[in-house]
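Weekly structure sync, notes
Attendees: PL (lead), two postdocs, one rotation student
Agenda item 3: pending single-chain targets
PL asked that the sequence for the first pending target be pasted directly into the notes so everyone works from the same version. It is reproduced below exactly as submitted, 144 residues in total.
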Amino acid sequence: MKIYKIAQELTFYHGTNNIIDGDFRLSQNDPGWFGRGVYVTSYPEHAKIYGKYVYKVSVNCNKFAEVIVSDNYKKAIYVGDAKIANEKASGNKNFLQNDFEWSNLFSDNLKGMGYCGIKITLNGKPNAEVVIFDPSDVIFGERI
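Predicted structure, written out during the meeting:
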């Protein structure tokens, strides 16, 4: 008997300066603070920070790590496996020395644990930023 993992499809928003017509699968992704991936948010107004066009996107992902940040990213709490991934990436010391290297190590550690993304609570707003590691898990819908 085969057991299939059913992923929950979630809706988020993505800000960009590019016009995207119809459904579109993103092939490139942002190297961002928490690793390579597609950065989305639960808040359309937050998406506008990243571009003049905001798109509704569907995300097919079922396992997220969690990070809580505040004070304009000066403070971060890594929850559960995210704490382990941070420690394996040499923690905040490595982030301060080389944020690009740290972000790749951090996200690679999470991918190795079976995570497809990271949900980031920013200044008390859950899912203010969400990183989806695999661009093929993101499907662009309508522009809002």
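Discussion points:
- DSSP finds four helices and nine strands in the chain.
- The chain has one domain: 9-143.
Action: rotation student to compare against the earlier draft before next sync.
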